[in-house]
Amino acid sequence: MGYGSGTGGLWETYFTSDRDKYYENNNTLLDMYSEKPGGADSYEYKLGRVVDGGNQCGNGSNNENSCYNREHSVPKSFFGGQSAVPMANDGHFVIPTDYYVNNQRSNYPYGETNTPTFTSTNGSKLGTSNFPGFNGIVFEPINEFKGDLARMSLFFITRYEDKLASFTPYQSGGNPLDGTIDRGYKQWYINLLLKWAAQDPVSQKEIDRNNAVYLRQQNRNPFIDHPEWVNMIWTSTLTTKDIAAFDQKISVYPNPVRNGELHLSGYGLEQVKTVQIYTIDGRLIQTINQDLKTSKKITLSNRTKGTYILKTENQSTKFIVE
């Protein structure tokens, strides 16, 4: 994806990936650094260039509510800057935010602080870390979006695992990258991201954004599709049974389902001959007697919008019908 405008650029992607359909529900820009989930936002941005009536920019004012630009949730200084592609252009972690708050965040890592020197209008904070393992300056988003940003950060080190050793020297104080490909981040940062991922589960906003970026980039954030993988990868308590379950995890696509048909993928499906569909509260609504060795396409009898659970003999996964 390109960094600038045009059909292949990040600016264009934001028209489908970052509209507010969840809080004000008015199709303005959904900016995680200014959105107030519990009330009216202090300001809102229209998507698009100024010449077209929008509020995107390269440079803004020394205050909030001037324009929005592109924020690398994993700072680009950690991996080589704007010219370091494809990282610099990756819509899965390059997000639209208020210009001024983006500048305040700078390239400080995410973290937690109780002594902020700056607080944005929605409560995002900059200050000295009080999270165990790090005492430098950090940027703390509001609770509503901590899981979103944690999963973006975990996506980054997974997607670019083969490049981690070549990135900006990880010895620099605020850089949470540890220079390895097995863990990716320093332990304090892993601990923070695991906490946030558990504290703020995957939302419909994240699912929709993942789908929108997929349509542009043809890749996905696996920790949105399978949030359970976070702890399976970054904890030291995995058993052989856990690893086997991870390797055989069943996947459903497309997700959300829109035409009543879904496809299954994963290991061990050739032995499956029965699939069951449950409502989220555990009520069995469909049993499908089908040899998946022959066909892995499932047709749903119930197409009511909602979240459902698909089960085989020893696997299960969630999917959404729209």
UniProtKB/TrEMBL annotation:
Keywords: Hydrolase, Nuclease, Signal. One of its GO terms (molecular function) is nuclease activity. It holds the Pfam family Endonuclease_1. Transmembrane segments: none annotated. The keyword Hydrolase applies. The keyword RNA-binding does not apply. Residues 252-320 form the Secretion system C-terminal sorting domain. InterPro entries: Endonuclease-I, His-Me_finger_sf, Secre_tail. Belongs to the EndA/NucM nuclease family. This is Por secretion system C-terminal sorting domain-containing protein. It comes from Kaistella chaponensis.
